[in-house]
Write a structure and sequence with these properties.
By secondary structure, the chain is mostly helical. Helix content is 84%, strand content 0%. The chain contains four helices and no strands. The chain has helices at 2-6, 9-32, 38-60, 66-87. Helix 2 (9-32) packs antiparallel against helix 3 and helix 3 packs antiparallel against helix 4.
Length: 88
């Protein structure tokens, strides 16, 4: 387990789960005709994806400027999601 975290592979697994979630939501919408739209899915998953990317950079010793960049992107995506929700 330690190697999984230290290598950053845990972040890759989480990102893969986010991709699978997006695919499942898209499939549900196509199959049932209801559910979140593509913009809704992106707004839902992007903040988390950017947070996980920041985690991956930190765990793997990547360039430090990428960490605040990913965190800033997560904030912008989160605020965009909130904005979409409050406009409804």
């Amino acid at each position: 387990m330690e190697a999984l975290v230290a290598s950053g592979a845990v972040a890759d697994l989480i990102l893969a789960c986010l991709v699978l979630e997006a695919i499942a939501l898209l499939a549900w919408r196509r199959w049932r005709g209801t559910g979140p739209t593509i913009p809704d899915i992106l707004a839902l998953l992007l903040p988390g994806a950017f947070l996980v990317l920041a985690l991956r950079v930190a765990l793997t010793g990547g360039p430090w400027p990428l960490i605040p960049a990913a965190l800033s992107a997560a904030l912008v995506a989160h605020l965009a999601d909130l904005s979409r929700r409050f406009r409804r």
